[in-house]
Specification:
The complex is a heterodimer of chains A (about 260) and B (about 350). In chain A, the strands form two sheets. A six-stranded mixed beta sheet of chain A has the order 6-7-8-3-9-10, with helices on both faces. With about 260 residues, chain A is an alpha/beta fold. The longest helix of chain A is centred in the middle third of the chain and has 20 residues, at about 120-140. In chain A, helix 3 packs across helix 5. The radius of gyration of chain A is 20 Å and the shape is globular. Chain A has two domains: about 1-80 and about 170-260, 3-Layer(aba) Sandwich (Rossmann fold); about 90-170, no CATH class. Chain A has eleven helices and ten strands. Chain B is mostly helical and about 350 residues long. Chain B has two domains: about 1-45, no CATH class; about 45-260, no CATH class. Chain B is about 75% helix and about 0% strand. Chain B has 16 helices and two strands. Chain B has helices at about 5-15, 30-45, 45-70, 80-95, 100-125, 130-150, 150-155, 175-200, 200-210, 215-220, 225-250, 260-270, 275-295, 300-315, 320-330, 335-345; strands spanning about 165-170, 170. Chain B has a two-stranded antiparallel ribbon with strand order 1-2. In chain B, helix 3 packs antiparallel against helix 11, helix 3 (about 45-70) crosses helix 12 (about 260-270) and helix 4 (about 80-95) runs parallel beside helix 6 (about 130-150). Chain B is globular. Classes of the chains: A alpha/beta (about 260), B mainly alpha (about 350).
Chain lengths: ~260, ~350
């Protein structure tokens, strides 16, 4: 069953057609790789799914309901959470604090209960803390959870962003180029983490430039090129798809092709 | 972490936490604060000093609320004197024109200011940066004109006289000491309220909006709603301060609630140090005392005032509290840092 289906989605910015009539599905429990050259429309697609942009036409269905017109914070509440291509941590807060913010949609303490410090509010706070600490361990972050998030090495900041996203208990996790800026060892560990996330029951939509990572962990791969859907299928099919190769490597000359 | 949290962390780092039971740890600064208020209240008998200290308390209350909006949520308001004024005029009108008890006046001040903040905040908080500043500035000016021109209700430019003093049962807060204690008791409650909000889910959400609004939205935080709530909260603090002010001086005039007052309120928060509760106190104290000290410079008063602001902003851009804490830590030398690190390691 598809957890997410994107139906003939289009979006343009001024004269630039960022996405044109894109249709595909993400199956529940899969890791779905989304690849394409720069400017293919991958990040635009993320922004449309998460409600940061509104589409010009088309629709996004999540678990059978349309996400059209929902503000981004409601979409997170429904179970879709994203990370950012350029790490967007809360730099004035600790590692633990960052992940605790991720629990926002799953907790409900408001101004009054915070001021009165009710029993419920304190219990919720302790619960939030424990859940966050568990996720920090799960993501493989070591060291002091009270350390400022901004002091972490870059690779760990990526992991922290994933831990923070997981704290909102998503059913569908959108990762925007999580391996960008990571070295080979870190990338391998990231691959394992993504697989572990799927094994937790979270469907993953992975935008990534690192081909070997995408091909290794994805159950299915969707290829975008210049705003259009180019191909979709199992990683092996995609790797041997002539259209995909052409998009990435350029077309052979007409004469050579004949 | 700054303010109280930072203080208790520092205690822990220097090994004090062994002696302070954990449940007392965070409340220790409150106890010290309450003790300081009591001591000053008992010792200081000079009416003038008590009066100045009371004004500092009233300004601190405004700065505390504004600090939540500016320091934590990262939104500016150049119209907070309006809420201060709404608090003062609401209670004045309700008690003098309608003969209600001042406590009804307080309820009126809070509800009117809250309602106005809600209506004003709904459209303006969609703005950001300079535009939000301009929006709130315009609002402040409109309210100021209202105070001045609605003569039948507010007494117009010549002011509003005969506001009754506060009383509970048979007891009236006549003596400066009594009023000092009332105001600073309210400040203490204000500090606790702010601290509790900051340490909660809401406080984290506020700081996340400040750090990265996009990421805050991606974490499911309704940033617009949150900003609106903090805006209303800060307006409530200002209106309570206005209420206390009106019943303290018993005479109010529009000049007290003009644009310059709004600017002075913002300056209190900035000078004291944003996102710091004790910073609000320090900023309020400084900005209340400064005009008095500067009288010696007579016509150069504004020049000296401006110079002080510039020097503080250039040398201590994070505000006085942060700056002083940094200097203090630096003076204690490197060994503190090393100790802090080793403590961090043993945490795991």
């Amino acid at each position: 069953m598809a957890i997410l289906s994107v139906e003939s989605l289009s979006k343009s910015f001024g004269g630039v057609q960022a996405l044109q009539d894109v249709t595909f599905c993400v199956e529940t429990g899969h890791i779905c790789g989304l690849i394409g050259p720069n400017g293919a429309g991958k990040t635009t697609l993320f922004n449309l799914i998460t409600g940061f942009y509104a589409p010009d036409s088309g629709a996004v269905h999540y678990r059978g309901r349309t996400l059209q017109g929902l503000p981004s914070h409601r979409i997170v509440g429904l179970g879709i959470t994203r990370t950012f291509q350029n790490v967007e941590l809360f730099s004035s807060m600790s590692v633990l604090g960052n992940v605790m913010v991720g629990r926002h949609v799953r907790t409900r303490c408001g101004f009054f209960r915070a001021i009165l410090k009710t029993r419920g509010a304190r219990a919720e706070e302790a619960e939030t803390r424990n859940a966050a600490l568990e996720l920090i361990r799960f993501a493989g972050l070591k060291g002091d959870p009270e350390a400022p998030a901004a002091d972490l090495p870059f690779g760990w900041q990526r992991l922290l962003e994933i831990a923070r996203a997981l704290a909102s208990e998503p059913s569908l996790l959108l990762l925007d180029e999580p391996a960008a800026g990571l070295n080979a060892v870190e990338t391998a560990a990231l691959g394992d983490l993504i697989t572990k996330i799927r094994d937790r029951g979270v469907t993953v939509l992975l935008v990534e430039h690192d081909m070997s990572l995408t091909m290794r962990v994805s159950d299915r791969v969707v290829v975008l090129d210049q705003g259009r859907l180019l191909a979709q299928g199992a990683p092996r099919e995609i790797q041997s798809d002539p259209e995909v190769m052409a998009a990435y490597l350029g077309r052979p000359k007409e004469a050579g092709n004949a | 972490m700054s303010g109280l949290g930072g203080l208790s962390v520092r205690f822990r780092q220097s090994g004090f936490s062994v002696k302070i039971p954990s449940f007392l740890g965070p409340s220790l600064p409150y106890l010290l604060f309450a003790g300081a208020i009591a001591l000053v209240g008992l010792w200081v008998e000079n009416f003038y000093y008590l009066q100045v200290l009371t004004f500092i308390g009233i300004n601190t209350l405004v700065a505390l609320g504004l600090n939540m909006l500016m320091g934590y949520a990262g939104q500016i308001s150049l119209g907070h004197a309006a809420f201060f004024g709404i608090g003062a005029y609401s209670t004045a009108i309700l008690t003098v024109h309608y003969g209600f008890s001042p406590w009804i006046g307080l309820a009126g001040a809070i509800s009117i200011a809250g309602l106005v903040a809600l209506v004003v905040g709904l459209p303006t908080l969609k703005l950001s940066g300079y535009y939000l500043g301009m929006g709130t500035l315009g609002f402040g000016m409109i309210v100021h004109i209202l105070f001045r021109e609605w003569t039948s209700m507010t007494g117009g430019a010549s002011g509003f006289v005969g506001i009754p003093p506060l009383s509970v049962g048979n007891y009236t807060f006549y003596s400066p000491t009594a009023y000092f204690s009332l105001v600073w008791g309210t400040v203490l409650i204000g500090v606790i309220i702010c601290r509790r909000i900051i340490d909660s889910r809401i406080g984290r959400a506020l700081r996340s909006v400040h750090d990265s609004e996009a990421a805050a939205r991606a974490m499911g935080i309704d940033t617009h709603m949150l900003k609106l709530q903090v805006f209303v909260l800060s307006a409530l603090f200002a209106s309570v301060a206005g209420f206390l002010y009106a019943h303290f001086v018993t005479f109010i005039s529009p000049g007290t609630f003009d644009f310059l007052t709004s600017v002075r309120m913002v300056t209190m928060v900035v000078i004291g140090g944003m996102a710091s509760i004790w910073g609000a106190l320090l900023g309020a104290a400084l900005l209340t005392l400064l005009p008095d000290w500067l009288h010696t410079f007579s016509e150069f008063e504004m020049v000296v005032y401006g110079l002080i602001l510039m020097v503080v902003m250039i040398l201590l851009p994070q505000g006085l509290t942060r700056g002083i804490l940094d200097l203090w830590e630096k003076s204690k030398g490197e060994d503190i840092d090393i100790k802090g690190e080793s403590d961090g390691d043993s945490f795991r």
